[in-house]
Every structure is written in C-alpha cells, then in structure tokens.
C-alpha cells in the first residue's frame, strides 16, 4: 500500500500535463471543455512584436556562453484569444523548459567534436518558445533560422524580442569558424499547428510520403537542421510532428536534434514513444547523444535523427 502511494506521489511530481488531449496538442484543460479551434497558420513579422509587452531579460549561462532569457507578464498573454496557455498549469512557450538548455549543451559538444557545423545552414526550431537553441544557431553562423510556435502571441510577446536582444548582446560571441562582425542570419517567425504549418514555412521540400524519391528533387530545398526541445509530450501530437519533420528536412544530409524527457507522466508521450513511431516508419536512423539524470526530475535525453 505504501509503495502504491509512493508511486502515485511520484507521478504527481512529474505530471506536467493532463490526460485530456486538446486540439492535437495535449495541453492541460482546466475546465474539461472542448478546446477552441487552433489558430490560423501564419508568418509573424518581426515588426509585429507587441509594443505593450512588459519584457525583461535575465542571463542564462550555458557552458560558458551567456544567453538571455526573456520574461513577460503571463497575465497579459493569458487574456489573449486562441491561446492554449492555462494560468498556473501550462505556460507553454512562456516557460524555459530544461530540454532547451540540454539541447544547446549538446549542440555545442557536437560542434566541438566536429560532428556539426551551423555555418551557412538553414535551421528550423519547432515549438520554439524562447528560441534559445535557434538563437544559438544564429550566433554560430547559420544562414537562416526560422522559429515556429503554436501561438502567434508567444512569438510576438517573447520569441521575437528574445531573438533581438540575444543577437544584439552576443554579436561578437561567434564560433571559431565564423568571421567577426554582426550576426546577419535571416530570422523569420511562423505560428500554427504542426499539422498545417508547413503551408506557410518557406523551406518545405516535398510530401513526406515521397521521402525516398528525393534524390530526383532539388537538394537545396528543406532545412539542414531541425531543432526541437520538449515537443514530444503528447501522444496525439506525435504523428503530425513526425510528418512535418519529413516534409521539412533537406535530403540527404539533413539532421534533427530532439531534446525531451524519456517519459511524460500523465499523457504517455516522451522521447521513447516518438522514437517508436520513427522506427516503425523506417525512414530515419536515430542515436542517443546525451542523457541527463540529475535525480531532481525525470530522465532527459537528446537524440539525433538522420535519413537512411
């Protein structure tokens, strides 16, 4: 009996989301009511940053590199329509999740070991929130970085100003293979559900079902690197996320870096559930790059995927 109660207590500690799926994303729904329809997919211009946002920053040190974590008034954003955000329960892109920092640490290690270079690369960060992994790619010489989040409000209130302040403050903190000077990466911002957002992304290269015929396609299409942190928590969202990756990744050398918890208690998602989907499809090879088990949270992992 005591063991059973202990297990239940642990589940409550790790319970980030509710069991009830909503709009294919699996976020908490405090009222247990039907979710609103997903917002339309669109590009959010950098000039559309909210002028009323109370935006402040605080430094975050990641392996010797100082990035800046933006903070906004959550109450302002919670009042907006078509938002999946739930006060006190799910703050979505307004929260800096652990996986974002794990991902940056891993990317830095991959670069140091000569397994990754962002120089001249096209990068897409899915479920970006603060956008720190994408910002890291900007500072390391990517030619373009596109940021995607479900909510346009998160992009307007947080991502866009966060990208701007990090590039401004870190323009001289470039990688050894990047010439000194200002960061001139093309940055664009896209909002929408993973099942539809490919309609507005600019580097989609093919229908995902034709992935093995891509040698006959324009090999300049697609994103060279896709980054995502804490995106695989909801079982219902995994198929659309995977299809989007297949539509967007460049052939034949595109690579995906995914940071996630091994399991997300309460919704059944996690890195292993997503990888089961990947393995069943058979188009990708996956490898575990890093594992973080600090005893204070669920086991976290960073995986790399590339096309067979």
From TrEMBL:
Q: Which InterPro entries match?
A: Methyltransf_16, SAM-dependent_MTases_sf
Return the protein name.
Answer: protein-histidine N-methyltransferase
Pfam annotation, one family: Methyltransf_16
Q: Name one GO molecular function term.
A: protein-L-histidine N-tele-methyltransferase activity
The lineage, from the top, is: Eukaryota, Viridiplantae, Streptophyta, Embryophyta, Tracheophyta
Enzyme Commission numbers on file: 2.1.1.85
Per the UniProt entry, what species is this protein from, by scientific name? Sesamum indicum
Supply one GO BP term. Answer: methylation
Chief place of localization:
cytoplasm
**Belongs to which family?**
Belongs to the methyltransferase superfamily. METTL18 family.
What residue intervals traverse the membrane?
A: none
Q: Which UniProt keywords apply?
A: Cytoplasm, Methyltransferase, Nucleus, S-adenosyl-L-methionine, Transferase
Gene encoding this polypeptide? LOC105158657
Subcellular location per the Swiss-Prot or TrEMBL entry: Cytoplasm; Nucleus
One annotated Gene Ontology cellular component of this protein: cytoplasm
Q: Which domain of life is it from?
A: Eukaryota
PANTHER family per record: HEPATOCELLULAR CARCINOMA-ASSOCIATED ANTIGEN, HISTIDINE PROTEIN METHYLTRANSFERASE 1 HOMOLOG
């Amino acid at each position: 009996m005591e063991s059973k109660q202990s297990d239940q207590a642990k589940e409550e500690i790790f319970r980030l989301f509710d069991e009830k799926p909503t709009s294919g994303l699996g976020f908490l729904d405090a009222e247990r009511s039907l979710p609103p329809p997903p917002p339309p997919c669109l590009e959010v211009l950098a000039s559309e940053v909210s002028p009323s946002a109370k935006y402040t920053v605080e430094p975050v040190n990641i392996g010797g590199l100082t990035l800046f974590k933006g903070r906004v008034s959550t109450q302002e954003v919670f009042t907006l329509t078509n938002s999946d955000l739930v006060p006190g329960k799910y703050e979505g892109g307004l929260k800096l999740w652990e996986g974002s920092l794990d991902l940056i640490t891993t990317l830095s290690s991959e670069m140091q070991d000569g397994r990754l270079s962002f120089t001249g690369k096209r990068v897409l960060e899915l479920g970006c929130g603060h956008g720190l992994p994408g910002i890291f790619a900007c500072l390391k010489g990517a030619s373009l970085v596109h940021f995607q989040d479900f909510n346009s409000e998160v992009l307007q209130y947080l991502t866009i100003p966060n990208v701007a302040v990090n590039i401004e403050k870190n323009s001289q903190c470039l990688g050894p293979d990047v010439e000194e000077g200002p960061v001139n990466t093309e940055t664009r911002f896209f909002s929408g559900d993973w099942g539809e957002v490919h309609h507005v992304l600019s580097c989609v290269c093919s229908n995902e079902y034709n992935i093995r015929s891509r040698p006959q396609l324009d090999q300049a299409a697609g994103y060279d690197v896709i980054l995502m942190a804490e995106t695989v928590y909801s079982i219902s969202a995994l198929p659309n996320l995977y299809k989007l990756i297949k539509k967007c990744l460049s052939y034949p050398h595109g690579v995906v870096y995914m940071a996630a918890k091994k399991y997300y208690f309460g919704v059944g998602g996690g890195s292993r559930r997503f990888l089961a989907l990947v393995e069943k499809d058979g188009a990708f090879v996956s490898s575990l790059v890093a594992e973080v088990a600090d005893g204070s949270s669920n086991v976290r992992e960073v995986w790399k995927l590339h096309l067979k």
